[in-house]
Amino acid sequence: MPKVDANIDLLWGEIGRLSEEGELRRLSGAFARFIAQLGAAPAPLVLAAAVLSELEGHGHSCLQLSDLAAGPAALLGWSEEQWAQLAAAAAPLPKGATGWRKLLAGCEQVWDREEFDYDQPLVLDGERLYLRRYWRDETHVADNVRSRAASVHAVDEALVRGWLDRLFDAQPDADGPDWQKLACAAAVRGSLAIITGGPGTGKTYTVARLLALLFAIAPDAGQRRVALAAPTGKAAARLKQSIDKALGELADRVGAALPLRELTARMGAARTLHSLLGARPDTRAFRHHRGNPLEVDVLIVDEASMVHLEMMASLLDALPPTATLILLGDKDQLASVEAGAVLGDLCHDAHEGRYDAATVAYVERASGETIPAAYRADGGALAQQTVMLRRSRRFGGPIGQLALAVNAGDEARVEDILRAGGGDVHWMEHAQQAQVLQLAQAGYAPYLELLRAGAQGGDHEDWVRRVLRSFETFRILCAVRDGEWGVTGLNEAIEKRLAAQGLLRHGAEWYVGRPVMVTRNDYATGVFNGDIGIALPDPARPGAPRVYFLEGDAVRSVLASRLRNVETAFAMTVHKSQGSEFRHTVLALPREGNAVLTRELVYTGITRASKEFTLVTPNGDVLREAIARRTYRTSGLRSLVA
């Protein structure tokens, strides 16, 4: 039997108590026991293993030894007293990060990167402790990104300049450079480009012009294989729709000089990352990998903030070294639900620019744009391939001002904008749930009216399309899942309200008009996590409703009886709303604050609204606390790619 501390039962008791209280996942306790069974297990090692596993559930890819030494209560969402009790059960603990490193490096369950062997479940890399697979993924992403960022090739600068002048309108009165034009010039010379910016800054507008530029300067434009992808089906459909529209407008501009419509038609549909990589049932492995790479020359990934560490590692593994990768996203949005904050790590200081002299000179020759002195510095290779778009063309009104104020952490400014109100922004500061139900009834009225009218003997598919589009104009977003102000509570209350008003026949599980969100990838039916559809009659099979989904203009459907992993979607979490946009967005915060409520969550909720935003807060202090709380994810990626 492996040797363990004689007083380890005290620690198991505390781990069990925290699990019973819901403060520690049972998985984390099970992982700690697994570590203890592998060999001699001092109590501090068991403690570190439990904490590391728990942090993975909070989205952290590793555990900083300095955080472990200082006490990770805040990272875990615990009180200091809860941490103190757990730590006391594992006492004596090592002194400082140095003491922790010495202890962990001596444990047979831990692989010290400086040693040769590599079959342990834990990895110690400098001052960071990892679960082995996250260390592997993070190292792979860092190595690949560094290699791609450094792979800068010469281009015909005069040719690039000529095409950029044709693709972009002149801006003689602009305040500062045209960052969109500048981004195209920077991206076209490398195998990696990151374009970040808030809503309305024109990320897809920019990448459409980048695509046209790549086609224009490539000698084999007709043979270039371009793929479009995003983490969710809805985000992928929006990406394709936006790029097709932008390229169609550009085709009229450039005329016969570049067959853009023909080149656009060859791109095909945008796909989810799971679909692109060839996800397979019952395995985490994809069909495409280093040994069977993607057949693509240019890959554009939108909503990259949603891409978690494991997915990014898989994507980079499957991408040929010769291909160009373009990542689009808002670095200030919520990170992925799963471990890692890859986009945030890669462009955390994009607002500073840090362009070196060579990049400044190249950009001016290739685009005619001058990078201001404030954005010049000796940044690394990745900084030269990263551009932040700084001018919002959509969010100039109260919604945009509110998003900027939240992002800056300016609580006073946030409240001023909310109290001023206006046609775009509304604040229900001391709200009751009944007010949210009133908003839901009014917001969903157009879709409910279409349901009541039915297809009326007309084109059934056209009616389905109109129902789906109408539903997508309004949405209630929640910060939490449970309770009166959570997704579960509000969905149940909204269903009852609409049924009581005679607007829905809420009897069976699959009633006509039920909106649902897919919660797990289902390759057999072709639906993926985050897809939203509505249960509607099937004219060919009365009594057997189908769930219809919209991808761009295309309608597809699945028998409702075949869908196992779905939930009602009148209300959804802010996390699940990423990649979506609604004309009117309602953000409902809970009565009590918690670690989930952060500045990034509020910002993401606000920026889902295109025309109208309503904030519902039963307790205004929760909003203030959320704005003051930043999302922090422990990771080594930032330092590895610097």
What's the average pLDDT? 87
Total beta-strand segments: 20
- Rg over alpha carbons: 26 Å
The largest β sheet comes out as: 6 strands, parallel
Strand order of the largest sheet: 7-6-8-9-5-10
Low-confidence segments, ≥5 residues, pLDDT <50?
none
Shape: globular
Count of helical stretches: 28
Approximately how much helix is present in the residues? 40-55%
**Alpha-carbon distance between the two ends:** 45 Å
Classify the secondary structure makeup into a structural class.
alpha/beta
Strand content: 5-15%
Task: Provide a descriptive summary of the structure in words.
The chain has 642 residues and is an alpha/beta fold. The protein contains 28 helices and 20 strands. The strands form four sheets. The protein has a six-stranded parallel beta sheet with strand order 7-6-8-9-5-10. The chain has a five-stranded parallel beta sheet with strand order 11-20-19-12-18, with helices on both faces. A five-stranded antiparallel beta sheet has the order 16-15-14-13-17. Helix 1 runs antiparallel to helix 6 (80-89). The longest helix is centred in the middle third of the chain and has 22 residues, at 233-254. The protein is globular and about 80 Å long. The relative contact order is 0.10. The mean pLDDT is 87.
Q: What's this, in brief?
A:
43% of the residues lie in helices and 14% in strands.
List keywords for this structure.
642 residues; alpha/beta; 6-stranded parallel beta sheet; 14% strand; globular
